[in-house]
């Protein structure tokens, strides 16, 4: 039996949901940029089995799959937000090159105000950009990304 406390401090029964635990783990890895191999660390496995013995720690590949599910869900949310928006959308890009690897990256962000006057800034894509970083090449990458 699993017990928890409610908002009043009363002890009550709690249910265990493995799927919810795995998605929460995936979101933690995304949020803190942990390596996928964290699920293979002995200390992490001991920790999770201590706080929830029923939790079956996923493999690195299963964690990757869960992360891609979270991405797909978040992508749908952003697309629905954009589709339901009657206002204009401003799109900005930010391009930079890593100093040690000489690799180019582009972030594409949508900015808009929804009906309730809340400003949204949503990253649409984060893309590796092959060399050369000419204006023509960057334009092609941007258009291709926006068409998806």
From TrEMBL:
Listed SUPFAM superfamilies: Hermes dimerisation domain (SSF140996), Ribonuclease H-like (SSF53098)
InterPro entries in the cross-refs: RNaseH-like_sf (IPR012337), ZnF_BED_domain_contain (IPR052035)
Domain of life where this protein originates: Eukaryota
The protein, known as: Uncharacterized protein
Organism: Cuscuta europaea (European dodder)
